[in-house]
Amino acid sequence: MWLKSANSNIIAYSYNLEHKHDHNFNTVNNYDFLQNCYYIFATTEYERSILRKRFVLSSMRQNYPKILFAGFTRFDLYCNKKESSLPRKNKPFTILYTPRWTSYKKIKSQGSSFLLYIDNFIDYARQNSDIQIIIRLHPLMIHHYIAENIVSPDYFEKLENTFRQLGNIRFDTSKDYFDSLEKADAFISDYTSLLVEFFISRKPVIYLGNVSLFNKNTKKMCQAFYKANSWNEINNFIEQLKNGCDLFYEKRNRLFPKIIKSYGKASENIRNILKNNFYEKGERL
């Protein structure tokens, strides 16, 4: 009997923002799972170096996984997109708000600002009919908030009714966030791996979380974010950007090539590595 086997390889869907001591980094990069992979395609050079050190130090085998950095595949979707300037003519100023799914009580430890600011967003939409607000919730958020009795079972339904009455604020319930990201002129966000996708769009980001758990590259990226700790600060930044005053525009463009590597080539790089490995094995057989 001939036994056939195939290599298991992992291509991360989520960009690594954290440093090596953060819980999220250790959860995503689970050693027990990763040690059985053949190729691990890291999302950053930093992640690659940390994982290589961990496997070299902890592995009892010589054939631990091959850990490579070939770029981040999600970036390939943006490589042909043109930069946009503020404000865009003949279009309403559009905000994409992405709150975290956890409780707002933990906002300073990468929690959610949703319950803290949702009424402010509604009031802002009511007072500014010339803008559009898109709210993209985490897929786990509604279930989590209701299951934990953080809100009533009909809370989100009531919000949607309010949104329909106003007409210029809505939840984005599509399967992919790419369309909303494209429409947005500015992003307002808690901690999320989407921060890097906001960054490569070269559009302004108003960041509501803290940066203490970020790795070195992510902290550099955050230098081009507007950081807000209250609704007044959020409101001021929105008004500033809506009027075409983007103080960090040049800084974002300077930082971009220093932080984002293998931009637009990740899928091609990974495909070539896997294809070459397949044919090399075939020749040996």
Automatic annotation (TrEMBL):
- Alphabetically ordered keywords of this record: Transferase
Q: Does the keyword Transferase apply?
A: yes
Source domain of life is Bacteria
The Gene Ontology CC terms held by the record are: membrane
Q: Which residues form a coiled coil?
A: none
- Is Transferase a UniProt keyword of this protein? yes
Task: List the InterPro entries hit by this protein, alphabetically.
Answer: Glycerophosphate_synth, TagF_C
A GO term for molecular function: CDP-glycerol glycerophosphotransferase activity
State the protein's name. CDP-Glycerol:Poly(Glycerophosphate) glycerophosphotransferase
What is the organism of origin for this protein? Treponema porcinum
What are the leading ranks of the lineage? Bacteria, Pseudomonadati, Spirochaetota, Spirochaetia, Spirochaetales
